[in-house]
Write a structure and sequence with these properties.
single chain; endoplasmic reticulum; about 70% helix; RCAF1; mainly alpha; 6 helices; transmembrane; about 130 residues
C-alpha cells in the first residue's frame, strides 16, 4: 500500500499537479489510477478495440467455426491479462480480483467481434 501512495505522489509531482488524461495513462506503465472506474473503462474500451481488429482479421482470413471463436477468447483474455498484470502492474484485489478484470466488458466485445467477423466474412467470401 505504501508503494501505491509513493507512486501516486511521484505521479502528481511529475504532472505539476495536473490530472493526466485517461488514454495517456492507459499507455503509461507508471500511471496511477486514482479512480477505479477510470481503469475499468480503459479495460472495457481496449477490449472493444481488440474485438474490432480481430473481427476484421478473422473476416478477411476466412476463419470459420469454433476455432475462430476459441482463438478470439484466448487472445482477448490473454492480451488484457498481460496488460493489467504486467504492463500496468495494478493490484488486482482492488478491482475485485483477476477474474473480475478478465471478464470486464468481455460479452460486449464478443458480440462486437461476431458482428464484425460476420460482416467482413460475408462481404468478402460470398458464393
Amino acid at each position: 500500500m505504501t508503494s501505491t501512495l509513493k507512486r501516486k505522489e511521484e505521479s502528481h509531482l511529475q504532472n505539476g499537479g495536473v490530472k493526466q488524461p485517461t488514454w495517456s495513462k492507459a499507455f503509461n506503465s507508471t500511471a496511477v489510477w486514482e479512480e477505479k472506474d477510470e481503469f475499468l473503462d480503459v479495460i472495457y474500451w481496449l477490449r472493444q478495440i481488440i474485438a474490432i481488429i480481430l473481427g476484421v482479421i478473422w473476416g478477411v482470413a476466412p476463419l470459420k467455426g469454433f476455432l475462430g471463436i476459441a482463438i478470439f477468447c484466448i487472445i482477448n483474455a490473454g492480451v488484457l491479462y498481460v496488460y493489467f498484470s504486467s504492463f500496468q502492474q495494478i493490484d488486482e484485489e482492488v478491482y475485485g480480483g483477476t477474474w473480475e478484470l478478465t471478464k470486464e466488458g468481455f460479452m460486449t466485445s464478443f458480440a462486437l467481434f461476431l458482428v464484425v467477423w460476420i460482416i467482413f466474412y460475408t462481404a468478402l467470401h460470398f458464393d
